[in-house]
What we know:
With 218 residues, the protein is an alpha/beta fold. It has 10 helices and 5 strands; from the N terminus they run ααααβαβαβαβαβαα. The chain starts with 9 loop residues before the first helix and ends with a helix.
Amino acid sequence: MILISGxxxxxxxxxxxxxxxxxxxxxxxxxxxxxxTIDKALERRRxxxxxxxxxxxxxxxxxxxxxxxxxxxxxxxxDRAAKPARGTETVPLAExxxxxxxxxxxxxxxxGYTVLEAVGPEEGLQVAQQHAGPIHLLLADVVMxxxxxRALADRLQALRPSLRVLFMSGYPSEAIKQHRVMEPNxxxxxxxxxxxxxxxxxxxxxxxxxxxxxxxxx
Length: 218
């Protein structure tokens, strides 16, 4: 049992849960099931709050300028200063968390992308198979019920070899790679993220050269 004080921050509470979970993992295959079930409510709270704050501090206006709230922190000010990364490609989005999925879809849509939204890996596979046009990048949560993001990517890339993949998760990339849920050279975006961080990472993956796709570490 993990006891977390009501005064603890979301970050400190989440790190406590992560640390306890990973200390008990002994077999690689345990990671999918454990990460999908352990304290998902805590991760949802952190993601929802972070994305809510991010959404409140940014307002997309007709000239595509992001205006920060007066009390925005330094990282969000820096995020504002960078030109929004836009595109017109088609992106299947597989994410089982409703709040995260909705905000991610809206950010990508406002940035010009066509989003094929899916509530999980099975639906992600289905919508991608049914889409008649080109598909450029899969954006998928690493840990989802029924099938991991890695397994979904493998199945879609078997059908569309040129498909590029960007994984995301509330768990650090080092922990995920250590337990073999994701390969060391794959692209990864840690939650929570700002709109600018998401669109720039998507653009980075889409613009990467074949040699970068083969060798680049996240």
